[in-house]
């Protein structure tokens, strides 16, 4: 029974990933306004009914990668040693995220640009953001003995590290940085945060 449930969950995850990947490919190629649920389902090799079993809209399907990336942060952070300082844990997680060969930064940049140029995707991203990003803050609160609902610390740390990661990636993808790679920028950003972002 347990193995059957595990297989079923893996098949569901694979179907969801296939639909999300198909939605992203079509949105990049055609523009989100020209993409339909029927086209996404066809691209993924499933029925339109199956698409609607997993996603309520094409925008949600395109943005599934964003939600998955938040869960990646959560899982990686939970996997760090419990007695490790939170700053060390977060730096390890961020470096692991930006150097993951399975998620090329170029592809991430294309998706970010796609979202930022689509009002429909931006609106849906805000909805998803409000729902899932709290999860990272909750893990930080657990690790630091703080309360995400009443303490500034887990919320500030969560937002600061997330912003540091985005700024580092934006600078690297612009091609204007002299850094050897995104990892160097991320580590420098974390160093500056730890020091209270001192004036240059």
Task: Offer a quick outline of the entry.
Keywords: DNA-binding, Transcription, Transcription regulation. This protein has 200 residues and is mainly alpha-helical.
* Radius of gyration, in angstroms, nearest whole number: 19 Å
Overall mean pLDDT: 90
Structural class: mainly alpha
Strand content: under 5%
Q: Which spans have pLDDT < 50 for at least 5 consecutive residues?
A: none
What's the overall geometry?
A: globular
Keywords: DNA-binding, Transcription, Transcription regulation
Organism: Rhodococcus tibetensis
DNA-binding region: 36-55
Domain HTH tetR-type: 13-73
Explain how this protein is built:
The protein is globular, with a radius of gyration of 19 Å. The chain contains 11 helices and no strands. 75% of the residues lie in helices and 0% in strands. Helix 5 (64-78) packs across helix 6 (86-98), helix 9 (134-144) crosses helix 10 and helix 10 (152-174) packs antiparallel against helix 11. The protein has 200 residues and is mostly helical. The mean pLDDT is 90. The protein has helices at residues 2-30, 37-44, 48-54, 58-62, 64-78, 86-98, 105-116, 119-132, 134-144, 152-174, 182-194. It holds the Pfam family TetR_C_14. Keywords: DNA-binding, Transcription, Transcription regulation. It comes from Rhodococcus tibetensis. Residues 13-73 form the HTH tetR-type domain. This is TetR family transcriptional regulator.
């Amino acid at each position: 029974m347990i193995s059957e449930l595990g297989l079923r969950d893996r098949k569901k995850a694979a179907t969801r990933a296939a639909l999300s990947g198909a939605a992203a490919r079509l949105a990049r190629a055609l523009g989100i306004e020209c993409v339909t649920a029927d086209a996404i389902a066809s691209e993924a090799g499933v029925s339109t009914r199956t698409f609607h079993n997993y996603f309520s809209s094409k925008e949600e399907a395109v943005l599934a990668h964003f939600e998955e990336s938040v869960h990646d942060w959560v899982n990686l952070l939970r996997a760090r040693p419990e007695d490790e300082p939170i700053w060390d844990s977060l730096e390890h997680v961020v470096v692991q995220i930006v150097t993951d060969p399975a998620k090329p930064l170029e592809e991430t940049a294309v998706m970010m640009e796609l979202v930022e140029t689509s009002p429909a995707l931006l609106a849906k991203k805000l909805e998803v953001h409000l729902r899932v990003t709290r999860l990272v803050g909750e893990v930080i609160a657990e690790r630091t003995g703080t309360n995400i609902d009443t303490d500034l610390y887990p919320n500030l740390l969560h937002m600061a590290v997330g912003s540091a990661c985005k700024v580092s990636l934006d600078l690297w993808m612009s091609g204007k940085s002299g850094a050897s790679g995104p990892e160097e920028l991320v580590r420098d950003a974390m160093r500056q945060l730890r020091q209270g972002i001192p004036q240059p």
